[in-house]
Amino acid sequence: MPAFQNLPAAPVAKKKPFADTRHGITRSDDYAWLRDDNWQAMFKNPSILDPEIRAHLEAENAYMSAAMADTEALQKVLFAEMRGRIKEDDSSVPVKDGPHAYGTSYVTGGEHPRYFREPREGGERTVLLDGDREAAGKGYFRLAGLDHSRDHALGIWGYDDKGSEYFTLKVRDLATGEDRHDVVVNTGGDGVWAPDAKSFFYTALDENHRPSKIFHHILGEPQEKDRLVYEEKDAGFFMSVGGSLLDDFIYIDIHDHETSEYRLIPTKDLLADPVVVAPRQTGLEYAMTEGGDVFYILTNADGAKDFKIMEAPVATPERENWREVVPHRPGTLILSHMAFARHLVRLERHEGLPRIVVRERASGKEHEIAFSEEAYSLGLSGAAEYDTDVIRFSYSSMTTPSQLFDYDMATRERTLLKTQEVPSGHDPDDYVTRRVFAPAPDGERVPVTLLYRKDTALDGTAPCLLYGYGAYGITIPASFNTNCLSLADRGFVYAIAHVRGGKDKGFAWYEDGKMAKKTNTFTDFIAAADHLVSEKFTSHDRIVAEGGSAGGMLMGAVANMAPEKFGGIIAAVPFVDVLSTMLDDTLPLTPPEWPEWGNPIESREFYDLMASYSPYDNVAEKPYPAILALSGLTDPRVTYWEPTKWVAKLREKTTGSAPILLRTNMDAGHGGASGRFQRLEEIAFEYAFAIKVVGKMG
Q1: Tens digits of per-residue pLDDT, 365-402?
Q2: Where would I find the Peptidase S9 prolyl oligopeptidase catalytic domain in this sequence (predicted)?
Q3: Catalytic site positions
């Protein structure tokens, strides 16, 4: 029996012919009108959205609600299950810094974190910032964090109350809890204190939502008087500002997806012009951390594809003075590094698994922090102080709840600080986690991480949610996720396809899934689906594919390439109108994205490549599976009109009877709902769709 029956008529978007000619090729787009001409202003004030567009989005939401009406009870059950696995009054383990220790906590029923501090060795906690109080009365609210000054007297905190990722910064007196008059708007959310706590540096966003300028704000002065420290003229580069543990330098980090440049301001002379460390050179990446009299530099220089670590004198950090400390080892990708008074720490990935390596700076001796599970996830948080032997890291697997450890780098003693509580109960022995390898068309082996209950029948009848991303070198970790237990407990196999475009198998895995090789991402995902079917984990009509953002592009591509191999598709904030977006250099992310996808404005070759796989451009008359697209009205990363146009075209072209649904969050942007329980409601909705598609409602 079909999962969706007796639906009302679906919305039909008007067609308004629009043509665009590039490289002598003319493309027509009947749904281009769904992009509001005034989108920049609308992101800051959603009420000015064109009424015709708003009416269409609301009609889509009404249709979606009708199609999913019979899942409302299921959504509530799923939400209750997920919420029941969260310790509502949870608290982080405070991080020591000077006379205090800082942390975050939640109250029962609270959506947003509270920032607190307590005496270094424990004692009464003081709430510095209450996220729930600040969010009161707002449809959307997201905190950017709280950064305390070196003297612990003041804090910079930021928030976005529209979902457009334009953050406002405020300065709080941490003793009284009162905000000062300093208010800085249209920032990227980061503010970095000068050591004297009389000023701070921040990144400003321009009218196209790009981080184009670094300013220096003096406390008590209006924002209009802030000094411009640096302006990035190339719209293709991202930019952020940060500080060092020693407070000796302000870092300006300028980069795209393949090129880096650092500029330094010594905090002993805040008015000094930023000094370039190594001028940008296409393909040269580097990241810096300070180690007293030297900088440690993580870089791919000189062909070090999987990166190496160099050092350079603080006084002369130019590239000609870089000296190798940790050599390049092909197949072992160094992900990040941290420096402390006596140790250098790095997080790296070897054979698809992460590991932490500690190096004694004086002797050069190294040791690894070892783990035994077949697949797991590590997080390295380090420490807030430089002169310490103790760092902090987290560990989890698909079946093992997250554990937080302090680690003494000198004695090698590991102290368990906290194990993630699952209040409703969790027995790891009830579940199985595995890593299998799917053969890709070109012979590569694509890792697939699986989670399922031990009593799940592996005879091809089990439903499967297959998740994929595959872009920007981002690796999807095999970490503990309480939400997916709701699917596993209903007989699902929960699977993560570690497709090319991520760095799951090293930097080459990333390179083989970008630019001219982008289609490997799509064929890898289809290969993962085929392998799960051939090994009897599931069957094609019982696979629901899921991906978001660039992973949403993956969903759109596989829907066009192999619609018969999926029972349903969930595409969250999907980047599906690839060619149109990459041709529009006024959009916030387009110029910085060219090194990832190619520049179709300048290159006919990349134009043709994107035209060959762009999901929106390749929708055709064929039977598509049930599709759920999710978007946010104020999303500056994947603009709302991309999934809106895609759904309109899919609905026009499909020859099948499965519904094409669009849900637009009219109060949020790229990340969806901001509160922790609001986010669970969205996940419950997505899972209800998957359960409905595979006929497991009863």
Answers
A1: 999 997 878 789 999 999 999 999 999 999 999 999 99
A2: 479-695
A3: 549, 635, 670
Neighbouring residues of 328: CB distance < 8 A, sequence distance ≥ 6: 303, 304, 305, 306, 307, 308
Phi, psi of 546 (to 5 degrees): -140, 140
Q: How far apart are the first and last CA of the chain?
A: 13
Supply the DSSP symbol for 460: S
User: Which tokens sit at 226?
Assistant: 């802030």
User: Does the residue 316 lie in any domain?
Assistant: no
Helix axes 676-693, 72-84, angle to 10 degrees: 130
CA dihedral of residues 106, 108, 111, 114 (deg, nearest 10)? -20
Q: Does residue 198 lie within any of the structural domains?
A: no
Q: How many domains does the chain have?
A: 1
What is the enclosing helix (H) or strand (E) of 58? helix 51-67
**188 lies in some domain:** no
Tally Cβ neighbours within 10 Å of residue 64.
Answer: 24
467 Cβ contact partners less than 8 Å away, ≥ 6 residues apart: 476, 494, 495, 496, 497, 545, 546, 547, 551
CA distance 689 to 684: 9
CA distance 65 to 74: 14
Residue 363: CB partners within 8 Å, gap ≥ 6? none
The identity of residue 213, as a single letter, is K
On whether residue 510 sits in a domain, the answer given is yes
What does the pLDDT read at residue 672? Answer: 57
- Convert the pLDDT of each residue in 108-141 to its tens digit: 999 999 999 999 999 999 999 999 999 999 988 9
For the segment 204-235, what is each residue's pLDDT rounded down to a tens digit? 998 888 899 999 999 999 999 999 999 999 98
- Which tokens go with 494? 């929960």
User: What is the distance of C-alpha 347 from the center of its chain?
Assistant: 19
Q: At how many degrees (to 10) do helices 604-613 and 519-534 cross?
A: 30
What count of other Cβ atoms lies within 10 Å of the Cβ of residue 415?
A: 11
Q: What is the CATH number of the domain that holds 643?
A: 3.40.50.1820
Q: How many CB atoms lie within 10 A of CB 196?
A: 12
Cα(129)–Cα(512) distance, integer angstroms: 45
- Residue 514's CB is within 10 A of a number of other CB atoms, namely 22
Q: Work out the angle at residue 427's Cα, subtended by the Cα atoms of residues 425 and 433, and round it to the nearest 5 degrees.
A: 130
Pairing of strands 390-396, 25-28: unpaired
Rounded CA-CA distance 485/520 in Å is 30
pTM comes to 0.88
Contact in structure between 631 and 662 (CB atoms under 8 Å): yes
Specify whether the CB–CB gap between 575 and 581 falls below 8 A. yes
Full residue range of the structural domain in which residue 469 is found? 433-693
Residue 384 and residue 375: Cα distance in Å, rounded? 29
The type of residue at 297 is I
Strand-strand pairing, 227-231 and 211-218:
antiparallel
C-alpha to C-alpha distance for 74 and 693, rounded to whole angstroms: 13
Each residue's pLDDT tens digit, 480-529: 999 999 999 999 999 999 999 999 998 999 999 999 999 999 999 999 99
**Dihedral angle at the C-alpha atoms of 628, 554, 556, 627, nearest 10 degrees?**
-20
The 493-497 sheet, strands edge to edge: 431-439, 445-453, 493-497, 464-468, 543-548, 568-572, 626-632, 660-665
Side-chain half-sphere of 163: how many Cα atoms within 13 Å?
Answer: 25
* Alpha-carbon distances of 697 from 284, 383, 484, 488, 682, rounded to whole Å: 52, 47, 17, 14, 18
What tokens does 567 get?
């029972």
pLDDT of the residue at 674: 65
pLDDT mean across residues, the chain: 94
